[in-house]
Prior knowledge:
There is one protein chain. The chain is an alpha/beta fold. It has an eight-stranded parallel sheet with strand order 3-10-9-8-7-6-5-4. Strands 1-2 form a two-stranded antiparallel sheet. Helix 4 packs across helix 5, helix 12 packs across helix 13 and helix 14 packs across helix 15 (about 330-365). The chain has helices at about 10-20, 20-30, 35-40, 90-100, 115-120, 135-150, 165-170, 180-190, 190-200, 220-230, 235-245, 260-265, 290-300, 315-320, 330-365, and strands at about 65, 70, 75, 105, 125-130, 155, 250-255, 270-275, 305-310, 325-330. The protein is built from 15 helices and ten strands. Strand 5, helix 6 (about 135-150) and strand 6 form a beta-alpha-beta unit. The chain is about 45% helix and about 10% strand.
Amino acid sequence: MSAVYASVDDLRRQAQRYLPRMVFDFVDGGAEREITLRANTADFEPLRFAPRVLADVSQVDLSTTLLGEQLALPLLIAPMGLCGLVRPEGELALARAAKAAGIPFVLSTASSHPLEAVMDAAPGNLWFQLYIFRDREFARSLLQRARAAGYRALVVTVDLSRGGKREKDIHNGFTVPPRFTRRTALDLLRHPAWLWRMAPHRGLTLGNLVGWGGQDSNVVALGTFMNTQIDPSISWADLDWLRAEWDLPLLVKGILHPDDARQAVAAGADGIIVSNHGGRQLDGAPSTISALAGVVDAVGTSADVILDSGVRRGADILKALALGARACMIGKAALYGLGAGGQGGVERVLAILRQELDVAMALTGNHRACAVRPDTLEP
């Protein structure tokens, strides 16, 4: 990449220049007043390091193990829908960048590319994320496809009993079905590079859902049908059902309360993902970094805990590790890289976070990412 990107924020600014407003706001925005969205990043700031010196940090090991798998970094790329709106290669680029960095990519049910194509593009440590729809047989078929394709873990998202109200999307007409206005058309014309790149890919769709419920590949029709399939009746019994259907590692994403974490582990979850859906669902929910310690205390060593949402710096990863997380997920940060420079942009995001984590660990006297000291942070 020719541009100099020193931070994830630099790539965010480039993505904002490249993407039409409606697409960037879809990537970058949150629910309602965006209180939780802002808290996800802001609540890292009051946490202060308690550096230790003269610790011989000439060798810093950033690798860790997660669910028995070796990772080069304590990091994953989170599941995100319709990444093909940012760049046509979408999830293919994210998966390839993750593989090159030695970390997992979690593919969303609502991905632009089908799960088999993503595995073909980047065979390796890929995970699959599932929404439990009203149509349980379709959910079972997705599990079977993921198992047959070689996905190594299943992430079930449990915080979507209702769709969050994202007001930026409403104002931009980025709804299902979409609402185009004169302002929208003018904004698209102001982003010719995005239009040129997307023009050959007018058939953008939800790759895993084509043919479901008799729907064709039209993304609007599939999106509308998917919204009707959001099931508010899901309960712990459905987690029991999933555990019986899936014999590989199972993680529950969307946990913020310690009691829910305990119950998920009791139901057979191997991992807990502390997540508020990137601030895109319930506005006023706690930030994930503020909820992390309570969840870690609740599950102890019974499950691996992953922090999702708000990570923009390597120092954020170190703070999460000090509070007991085994690894972190990035969503928006990865999409900033995708928008700024495709696969190369995602690789740059991961390289920045790697470098920043290495520096933060060395300057706090930590040698190994898998054994960060709790006293790395001030009480």
